[in-house]
Every structure is written in structure tokens, then in C-alpha cells.
Design a protein that fits this description.
Blueprint: E1 2-3, E2 10-11, H1 32-40, H2 66-192, H3 201-207, E3 224-227, E4 230-234, E5 252-256, E6 259-262, H4 268-275, H5 294-308, H6 317-324, H7 341-344, E7 374-380, E8 393-396, E9 412-415, E10 424-425
Parallel strand pairs: 7-10
Antiparallel strand pairs: 1-2, 3-6, 4-5, 7-8, 8-9
């Protein structure tokens, strides 16, 4: 009988598993020694016939030969060594089985612990989500009143802005009406009075622009601002900050002579009086003319000079920047007339052009040199200190669709001379 190593129950010698606990039983190894012992213990069989007597001096009758005995001993030693190895191997496998059972039991314990942990985590997560939802709902109800107040405040400011804008437009219309009436009076006075050949200075000041030659039947009034000449630093100066582009370098000292520049950008009303057409996208007599190429601006100037007998032209790039900076009266602003763009420019926060002159002027009382429409100048585009390359012309000041960076007094842009755009116009110089 074979005992089970785990529960010690008796099992048959040829059994592979324990009949009680089901454990794997060790394999019984039968050695040669056990075989010989079993043979020795076997009951005697029938008597064999006596062997013939041997001669004197020969081997004893029934003795085992020496070679066979040596072979049997060798086999016996090998079987003993094999049995020891088999027992050691069996012991190792039994240890592995025991270790596997322990690991299985430990994993089952851990699995149970993880299941409890997962259940707790799920509960905590659900509670956290519910709490966050409640907080958001409460916050939403609490902030609704604040949002309503902010909306009411914005609407109030918008109403104030619209009212001020309306008043500004009315004031401009009144100013234009008074200006037209004044010019008519000056024309009638000039027609009924004989002027001396050398008019005095006060008389010349009174007559002003009305003394300019005009084509019969056409009333043309262009308000020009005198700009005394001087020397200034052109390009990316300190107040421009980190917004400069590469083409604003190198900073250089430039001297310009005295000139005059128009107080406002050329309006649609003036364009129609000279050209008889209106190509602008945004229509309005007091709005700046736009969708004008550099070549078309030159055609307008040629025709205007023929009507007035004057010598109007586009300003040079240096003249434009000198006037935009305020000339000799410059206070070193980043934009034309202020460091705060909202005070002096209509730019990317607007949707379309705005009446000329509705923003604050610069130090020389010139309007819209930052924003509203970009302005052609006479120069070809090129790097400072180098020769122009190609036929592109310079645009200055930025327009209603430009970002603040492009509305700085030092900012430069370029386009081919045939380019048109609903944010491109010009102003005059003399």
C-alpha cells in the first residue's frame, strides 16, 4: 500500500491519485535490490535434478559466477543512484506544487481585496461627480445675475457709443455745410472786389484756399496742413517696442524740407468731383475713397492739378512718416497722435471704413494717419539703405482691417502699383 504525502491515506501501489484528497501520488520506483529480495522470499519450487559433480579444485556447485556477481552489483549501484535522483526530483516537484498552491491562494486574497477597493473607488468617483455637478449648477444659477448685469452694462456702453457717433457725424455734416457756405461767400467777395496786385499778408490769410484757381462750375476745397521741414529718426525707434519688422531697419536720420499734406484722406466726395465716378466698396461722401490703385491715384492727381492749377502729388515715404510722427512737434508716439490706438485709429475692431476725421488728430492736427485706409506714397518699395527692387509701391498707416502692429508710424507695406482693395486709399501732398 502507498500513503498519500498530503493526507496520509492508504492507496494501492499502482494508484496515480489519492482516492481521498485527489493529490498526485509519487511514482513507486522498483529497484533491482527489491526484485532480488522478492525472489529470495519466494516459496521454493519443485526440486530440480542434481547437477553432476564437478572435479576437485573446480567451483563449488550452485555458486554464482564472479563476473555475473560483479555485473549485478554494478546494476544495483546504478539503481540506487537513480532512485536517489528520482526522490530528489520528486521532492523538487512537490515543492513547486506547494509554492503554486500558496501563490494561488495569495492571488485569490489580493483579488478579493481589489474587488473591494474597486467598489469603494467607484462609489467615491460617483460621489465626486455628483458633487461637482451640484457645484456647477449652483454656480451657474449664482452667476446668471452677474452675466445679466454685465450684458446690461455692455448694452449701455454700446448705446452711448452709438449716440456719440451719431452726434459726431452730425457735427461733421454741420462743419462741411458751414465750410461750403464760407467758400461761397469768399468766392462772391472775390468776384465783386478788385484785388491789388500785391495783396497784404492779412488779405492772403483771409482768402486762403478760396484764392486758388478753379475750373468753372466745380467747387474743390482741400484742407492742407503746412509741415515745417526738419530732421527726424526714421524706422524702428524705441517707442515701437517689439513690433518692428525687418524692413524697418536700419534706423536712420532723415532730413525733409517743408511741405504741406492734406488734413484728411481723399474722400469719395472729392474723388467724384474730379473723376465723376465712385469705385468705393463702402459708399458715403465723407468716407475715404478706397479700391484705388497707385496708378489711378496718379491719374486723379493729374486731373486735379489741371482743374486747380496746383501741384498736388503723393507724399514721399519719409514725408509721410515725418508728418505721422508729428513733425517738429512730435511727442514720440507709437501711433500717429497717441500710444493708445483706440484714440486715433479705426483698425481691426471695425468692419469697414469710417468718416474721415472722426478720431483724434496727431500733433499737427492731421487725422487718420493710423487706420481707416492704408495710404499710397510715391516711393518704390526697398530695404532702407538699398536700391528698390521691382515696381512695388509703399503703403503706410494700416487700414480698418489691419491689426494694431500695422498701424504704427514706422510700419511699412508694399503692393504692386495696380493693386486695389477696400482698405487702400491715399492723401495728398504739396
Amino acid at each position: 500500500m502507498m500513503k498519500c504525502p498530503k493526507c496520509e491515506a492508504a492507496n494501492q501501489d499502482n494508484a496515480r491519485k489519492c482516492a481521498i484528497c485527489g493529490s498526485v501520488l509519487p511514482v513507486k520506483i522498483v529497484t533491482m535490490e527489491e526484485v532480488l529480495r522478492s525472489r529470495a522470499a519466494a516459496p521454493p519450487g519443485p526440486a530440480k535434478p542434481a547437477a553432476p559433480a564437478q572435479e576437485e579444485g573446480g567451483p563449488a556447485l550452485g555458486a554464482v559466477p564472479g563476473e555475473e556477481l560483479k555485473t549485478l552489483k554494478t546494476q544495483l549501484e546504478e539503481e540506487r543512484a537513480g532512485r536517489i535522483h528520482a526522490e530528489a526530483t520528486l521532492e523538487k516537484y512537490m515543492g513547486k506544487i506547494s509554492e503554486r498552491d500558496n501563490t494561488t491562494e495569495r492571488l485569490q486574497v489580493n483579488l478579493e481585496r481589489y474587488r473591494k477597493y474597486i467598489n469603494k473607488s467607484t462609489l467615491y468617483t460617483a460621489a465626486a461627480v455628483l458633487l461637482a455637478s451640484l457645484i456647477l449648477i449652483i454656480t451657474g444659477f449664482a452667476g446668471q445675475g452677474g452675466l445679466k448685469r454685465e450684458l446690461a452694462e455692455v448694452q449701455h456702453y454700446k448705446h452711448m457709443y452709438d449716440s456719440l457717433n451719431t452726434l459726431s457725424r452730425k457735427a461733421i455734416r454741420s462743419r462741411d455745410s458751414l465750410r461750403t457756405e464760407l467758400i461761397g461767400l469768399q468766392n462772391r467777395y472775390a468776384a465783386t472786389h478788385t484785388e491789388p496786385e500785391q495783396p497784404s499778408a492779412p488779405q492772403e490769410a483771409i482768402r486762403g484756399a478760396a484764392a486758388q484757381p478753379r475750373k468753372a462750375g466745380i467747387d474743390i476745397n482741400i484742407e492742407m496742413v503746412p509741415v515745417p521741414g526738419g530732421t527726424f529718426t526714421m524706422g524702428c525707434t524705441a517707442e515701437q517696442g517689439d513690433n518692428c519688422s525687418d524692413d524697418e531697419h536700419p534706423v536712420r536720420s532723415v532730413t525733409v524740407g517743408s511741405f504741406s499734406i492734406s488734413k484728411y484722406q481723399v474722400t469719395q466726395d472729392l474723388w467724384k468731383r474730379v473723376m465723376g465716378t465712385n469705385p468705393a466698396y463702402y459708399r458715403g461722401d465723407n468716407l475715404p475713397i478706397e479700391r484705388i490703385s497707385w496708378r489711378e491715384a496718379q491719374q486723379f492727381i493729374t486731373k486735379l492739378n489741371g482743374m486747380t492749377g496746383q501741384n498736388y502729388r503723393l507724399p514721399t515715404e519719409a514725408e509721410w512718416e515725418y508728418a505721422a510722427r508729428g513733425g517738429a512737434s512730435s511727442r514720440g508716439y507709437k501711433f500717429s497722435g497717441s500710444n493708445h490706438i483706440e484714440e486715433v485709429a479705426w483698425y481691426a475692431r471695425t468692419s469697414g471704413t469710417t468718416w474721415a476725421g472722426t478720431r483724434k488728430s496727431n500733433e499737427l492736427r492731421i487725422h487718420d494717419m493710423s487706420g481707416n485706409v492704408s495710404e499710397w506714397v510715391s516711393d518704390k518699395y526697398g530695404e532702407y539703405g538699398g536700391k528698390p527692387e521691382g515696381d512695388d509701391r509703399v503703403l503706410r498707416g494700416g487700414g480698418w482691417s489691419s491689426v494694431a502692429k500695422s498701424c504704427r508710424v514706422a510700419s511699412r507695406a508694399s503692393m504692386p502699383p495696380g493693386t486695389r482693395g477696400n482698405n487702400i486709399g491715399f492723401r495728398l501732398a504739396q
